[in-house]
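agent> Task received from the user: take the single chain below, predict its 3D structure, and emit structure tokens. No templates, no multimer pairing.
agent> Plan: (1) validate residues, (2) run structure prediction, (3) serialize to tokens, (4) report one or two observations.
agent> Step 1 OK, no nonstandard residues flagged.
tool_call: predict_structure(input=
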Amino acid sequence: MRKNKKSCSISEFCRNNNFRTLEFYKMLSRHPELARKMKANSAGERVLDEEAMMTARAILRKEKIEDRRKRSAADAANEINTLATQIEELRKEVGRLKCENQRLKKVIVSLRTEIRKQDEVLLCQRRK
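)
tool_result: status=success, residues=128
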């Protein structure tokens, strides 16, 4: 004698797996193999048998993995954009510092020449 297979309604399955019913139906539209495994009970509502439940759980796991990959790719893209912005700001800062460095070099050169001139004047005065 064959035992009856265990089955549950879609709402029970969603409740047990922390999944919204609307999202389940969206998943169902993307996976016709799961829709083919569903049965109707005597009341006319759609139910999942053991095989359909295993298939649905496998699809859920696969979609969660894909979502994590998409999120990690999006996070990486955001990080790249942030770093690109920081690089651009640092380039501007480097340009500003180069200009400041050139200005300071000119000041130093002018001070050195002024000091040399003063030293020459002092040497000339000592010789006299």
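agent> Step 4: summary for the user.
The first strand starts at residue 7 and ends at 9.
agent> Done.
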